[in-house]
Amino acid sequence: MPNSELMPIGVFAQRSGLTSSALRFYADSGLLPPAEVDPVSGYRYYGADQVARATALRQLREIAMPLAVVEAVLDAGADEAARLVDEHVAKIVGEAAAARQKAAVIKSALGGNLPGLLIATLKGPVLADAVDQVLTATAYEPGMAVLAGLHIEASHEAITLTATDRFRLSTRTLVPARPAERTWAGTVDGVDLRAAVAEIRHSALVRIEAVPQGIRLRMDEREDRHCRLLSEDFPDHRLMLASLGEATTRATVSKDLLLRALEEHPGERVALHISRHGVNVWPPNDEHPGIPVLATVTGEALRIQFAMITLYPAVSTAIGPDVMLDLRGHDRPVTIRSADRGDLTTLAMPVKVDHAS
């Protein structure tokens, strides 16, 4: 290769984002040998065609990938490389979750492992289903950790789980197998709860206790699980619920038929035309034929638009074969719940109707 096409190590370091010392280390380890070494001065030179490999090497090391796996990724085909990266990330995530859980146990022990305040005792499978359903209304946004949390409110008679991503709000109320010692409320980290769901589901009863900085899940013949409390205030959802007003249109429709129509819909937004004839699922601009869905409708005819990522999960998590939509106008939240069971309720925010179309 002519010298004019080679870069000294300093220039190559700037192009690749690696330091000169790192390049020397990777050259000595065989991962990234220079294209040429001056036999007299010992200066190392790199080719432009090595920048991509050097950049990938840097990125893989930034996610703490061991050198042996890095070499395998760099020398593998695209599919195998992707599999190795996914495998490495899954290992890191699992180790992080295990470390977080052990840290919670250690903190509890440092506090003397005092008995917690009983929030509720619930049937494990029921609690696991409720957590899965309500957590579909969470979101991960930088600086807004509370949107990824599950708000828990406990009284002597019931325990209510609520989550919101600002476009949906899901809430489910459960009757405890044993009453709480006193009222309690807090917002629990959703990641911690998701990690505990499998064990919760396979436990006949789960005792939920409030402990400093979190809750403790106690299950027979299983290790205690700890979930962190989030410090941010949960949005004032009760004020919003109280200000909704009465529904002006109600549609009761088969959950499976409505989901099938949404799955066949081609766009990211969907318009529902609701009339006494039923529910029609249309593209917002009517450029494709609508999909009719049989429904029992009372009240005013209405057209309302949703983002698919808002409406679909709100319908899919509803309990039972039929869902009830309570609508209050094209720009107001829609209440979605089971037609015969009201313990899981989801509010879905519509999007602005494009009147020009």
Structure description:
This protein has 357 residues and is α+β, with helices and mostly antiparallel strands. It folds into three domains: 3-75, Multidrug-efflux Transporter Regulator, Chain: A, Domain 2 (Orthogonal Bundle), CATH 1.10.1660.10; 113-237, Roll (DNA Polymerase III, Chain A, domain 2), CATH 3.10.150.10; 244-348, DNA Polymerase III, Chain A, domain 2, CATH 3.10.150.10. Helices cover 33% and strands 30% of the residues. The protein has ten helices and 20 strands. It has helices at 9-16, 20-28, 51-62, 67-75, 78-110, 124-134, 190-201, 237-242, 255-264, 308-316, and strands spanning 6-8, 36-37, 44-47, 117-123, 149-154, 159-164, 168-174, 184-189, 205-211, 214-219, 225-228, 249-254, 269-275, 278-282, 291-293, 295-299, 302-307, 322-327, 334-338, 344-348. Strands 8-5-6-7-20-19-18-12-16 form a nine-stranded antiparallel sheet. Strands 4-9-10-11 form a four-stranded antiparallel sheet, sandwiched between helices. A four-stranded antiparallel sheet has the order 15-14-13-17. The chain is flat and about 90 Å long. It starts with 5 loop residues before the first strand and ends in a 9-residue tail after the last strand. The mean pLDDT is 89.
Number of helices: 10
Describe the largest sheet.
9 strands, antiparallel
Separation of termini? Answer: 61 Å
Strand order of the largest sheet: 8-5-6-7-20-19-18-12-16
What is the ordering of alpha helices and beta strands? EHHEEHHHEHEEEEHEEEHEHEEEEEHEEE
**Rg value:** 28 Å
Structural class: alpha+beta
